[in-house]
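agent> call fold_tool(seq_1)
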Amino acid sequence: MEIVSYVLEGALAHRDSMGNGSTIRPGDVQRMSAGTGVCHSEFNGSPTETAHFLQIWIIPDAPGYEEKRFTDDEKRGRLRVIASPAGDDGSVKIGADARIFAGLFDGAERADFDVLAGASMCKSRVAACRSTARRSLPAMPPSSKTCRR
């Protein structure tokens, strides 16, 4: 499984049987491709702070591990690629045909996102975390009943 963790607030600690171990914080992205026999755990990396994070699971091509930091300035007012198959624009490299973006928006800031050529809305997802903003998104079909592989 390709596991991409993105911390929104607090800290997330990671340990695994491949010898990797660290604590990531807001702005950090961690990618781990795990297969049969890899044991790992994630847990709150702070005794006093609440951990709030996203964890995205994708079917991988091969096992691996990577971490990178993306500053608030890199995400302010735009969608910044944080994970992609080729490590686009310095993103973590994932072994799957998927791209993950992060952005920070205040006030009148706005970003447009075009679904990549060849991708369908069945394969595209948008998540707004800690948002009070209005979203204008096309209607998305129920995942397993309408979308086919």
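agent> call fold_tool(seq_2)
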Amino acid sequence: MIRLFKHYVPHAVLLLGVIDLLLLVANNLAWVQRMAFARARMGDEIGARRLLANYIALNPREGAASAMLARMQRAAGNPARAALLFRHATASGSGPADPLLLAELSEMEALIGNTETALGSAGQAHSMQRGNQRVARVMAVTMEMAGHEAGGADVLMAKARGAGMSANLASR
């Protein structure tokens, strides 16, 4: 037992308090994501984006929140802001190791006209996950936009379309 303000507190209660505090801090992003999703579902898109932006301002190294806000900006029709947020998400957290996040960054960069940057992100994503249908499609579209050899883009696009069939064949 530990004496605290003339009271004796058992070690187990103190340990539970510390664990509760750690869980509260660790799950802060989960609560913010749930609140933002609830606001967006209720029609308050601006409030949801503002909530995530405030969270990112307080926790700039949180890549998952930046990615979520980037997706909301993309859905709202703000590709430049979405690209900026996807860049931030890939620079923080596990972003450089996430090929789908790099593919989303590549899509936004291509949409705003940064084809060479988009090609770099798509190439990085494709080198990490060559068998991913979405990554192959993003790489093919980016190669076409950048004006690279048409044969390579066609092969990747065929691979992206054909990847779904190979899973069906494998299940037989």
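agent> summarizing second result for user.
DSSP finds nine helices and two strands in the chain. Confidence is low (pLDDT under 50) at residues 165-172.
agent> awaiting next instruction.
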